[in-house]
Each structure stands twice: as structure tokens, then as C-alpha cells.
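[recover] target loaded
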């Protein structure tokens, strides 16, 4: 009694193609694209049906072990969409694009970011790792270049010399990170997705994304932890 998946139209195919070539698409862009694809290919369009439109595509992607996933930017809390390959473990997707030593630098950078207090790693700390790589030591100049490429390819994002995981990377690697960093990877107590940049309760250790912190404490006179009710000692954004 499987429900027949809704038909894939040219509008769906066009949408998927753009999403794949973008790597990641911000929510408002995805909504515009939805409208554009439907109008171009004369397919019924309803502005509040983007999720249905995407789940139609996903039902056809399932046999290919692919999926359009929605994730939230840790900076501003906005929705983003990325096409994820479910069959690929870990960094296989990256393995075809980067050398062994570049991948090792990425993994070590990811370690620093995930093990940090606030979800950032400084370029100094990352560049200090470059000459300790097992695969092939990297000169600082070379490592700087590699970091630039990781930012261009949307695996990392950089702010004032501090690096964190790009939203695209978090969407694609959430499962990998949660299973490989079980002791340290946190889920946000509010939205339950992986939190890299987060504030952490000093009493009970739960974490929350900054945009979630902002929303949760809005209108509260005294910020208290949603779990243990102790005073929230971090400066709320």
C-alpha cells in the first residue's frame, strides 16, 4: 500500500539542478527558485508548498541515496537547503576534490572547531597543525591557500581570522560528526540539530545555538537554563 510518489516534473528537475550546482541555497532564494521553476515549466505553484515540492523530489532521490536537507545557519538562524549524499561516509565526497594532506588538515581543523568552547578555531592554531601532518607536512603559505579553498567551497567559513564549519558542512556532515565526536558534539537544546557555535550552560552543560538563545530568552527578565533552571551566565546575544 505504498503511496505513489507525486510525479517529478521539469520544474522539480530544474530546482534540483540549481540546488546541486549551488552546493547550498538560502531559504528565501529557495522560495524564489521554487516560484521561478514552477512558472517557467508551467507547473502549479503555491507559495506555501515548498516543503511538499521538496519532498516530491526527495521521494525520487531516495533510491539514489540522496536527499535535499534543510539546515539552519548558526549565525542568523536562517534556513538553508543542501543536497546530501546519504551513501557516502564521512569525507568521501571531499576525497575526490582534495589531496590526502588537504583532507587531513580539514579533519584536524574540524577537531579544533568541535572541541573548542565556542565553535571557532583561530588561523594561528590551524596553521600550527600544518607542519605536523602525517600525510605530508605543509608550509604555512600552502596551508593558508588550502584554508581559502575550503572557505570558497563552503566547508569552512571565516570571520576575522577565526574559522568555523560552514552551514553546508554542518548539513552534510551532521551524522558523521554526531557519531565520531559522541562525547563532545552537542545538539542544540532548542532546535535539536547539531550545534557547533553555541553557548553552554555552566551548571548542566547543555548547549544552544546563538539564534536559538536569542529567541528563547527574548522577553525573559532573567535568563535561566531551559533544562536545569540555573541562571544563564553567558552574555546573551
Amino acid at each position: 500500500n505504498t503511496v505513489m510518489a507525486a510525479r517529478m516534473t521539469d520544474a522539480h528537475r530544474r530546482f534540483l539542478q540549481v540546488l546541486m550546482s549551488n552546493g547550498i541555497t538560502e531559504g528565501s532564494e529557495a522560495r524564489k527558485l521554487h516560484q521561478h521553476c514552477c512558472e517557467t515549466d508551467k507547473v502549479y505553484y503555491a507559495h506555501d508548498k515548498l516543503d511538499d515540492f521538496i519532498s516530491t523530489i526527495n521521494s525520487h532521490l531516495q533510491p539514489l541515496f540522496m536527499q535535499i536537507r534543510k539546515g539552519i545557519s548558526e549565525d542568523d538562524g536562517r534556513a538553508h537547503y543542501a543536497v546530501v549524499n546519504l551513501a557516502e561516509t564521512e569525507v568521501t565526497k571531499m576525497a575526490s576534490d582534495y589531496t590526502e594532506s588537504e583532507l587531513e588538515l580539514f579533519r584536524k581543523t574540524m577537531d579544533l572547531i568541535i572541541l573548542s568552547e565556542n565553535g571557532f578555531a583561530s588561523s594561528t592554531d590551524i596553521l600550527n597543525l600544518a607542519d605536523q601532518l602525517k600525510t605530508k607536512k605543509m608550509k604555512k603559505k600552502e596551508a593558508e591557500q588550502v584554508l581559502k579553498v575550503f572557505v570558497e567551497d563552503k566547508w569552512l567559513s571565516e570571520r576575522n581570522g577565526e574559522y568555523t564549519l560552514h552551514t553546508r558542512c554542518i548539513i552534510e556532515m551532521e551524522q558523521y560528526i554526531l557519531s565520531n565526536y559522541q562525547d563532545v558534539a552537542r545538539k542544540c537544546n532548542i532546535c535539536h540539530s547539531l550545534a557547533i557555535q553555541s553557548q553552554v550552560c555552566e551548571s548542566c552543560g547543555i548547549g544552544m545555538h546563538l539564534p536559538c538563545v536569542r529567541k528563547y530568552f527574548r522577553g525573559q527578565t532573567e535568563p535561566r537554563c531551559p533544562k536545569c533552571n540555573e541562571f544563564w551566565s553567558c552574555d546573551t546575544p
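[recover] notes: Residues 100-115 form the longest helix (16 residues).
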